[in-house]
Please model this.
Amino acid sequence: MRTLRPASTMDDMADPRPAYLARLDAALVGPARTRRSLVQEASDHLDDATAALVRAGWDEETAARRAVADFGTVPEVAASFQTTLAVAASRRTAWLLLLVLGYQPFLWDSGLELASETHAARPDWWLVGALDELIEIGGGLTLLGALVALVLTGVGNRWLAAGRVTARVTAGFTLAACAFVPLTCVAMTLAAGGWTVGFWGLVVALMMLPLSGVAVSARGTLAAA
Model:
């Protein structure tokens, strides 16, 4: 007695497009939304190519197989799409870095004034002043770097064709910033004294945890690049 194949298996054998798209989706690494968009783009292309061949007189199964063969192998297409995913991931990472660093001046100087609390015990010690200056300069350069990354992966991508190198540089810069900012702030706080348990709670909740999330995004960018 012959064993019948499941209908889904028979359909996959008749039409290679679903299996091809599934392999392509599995091969891509990066933001889910962009990945879905790229896979949908590939699906639309295969559907259009298949339809054109059917209109030319091919049967649908053969037309689908020819369309898949002409489109390229999964590794070839994935390599092309992966650059787009890497740039999208780096742009998301740059936005997150800019967002988290953007409200830090409010925490330390103009809003919660955490800096004044750290200066309470030893406001005139040279090390405190030096670290404070380092934070000001480093924070400004970090914000500038995040803005440059956004320009390169956004509008600038039309002329400079940002690729995986840009994504890796953005991710590396972001990881360095995620280490530099909290380390210098903690060093200044410990040097100045005057901190409280509530102060550390605010630092962890409003700086360290958000920057940890940014670092996770940067590591995802490296994986995509």
Q: What stands out?
A: The mean pLDDT is 82. Residues 86-224 form one domain. DSSP finds eleven helices and no strands in the chain. The radius of gyration is 26 Å.
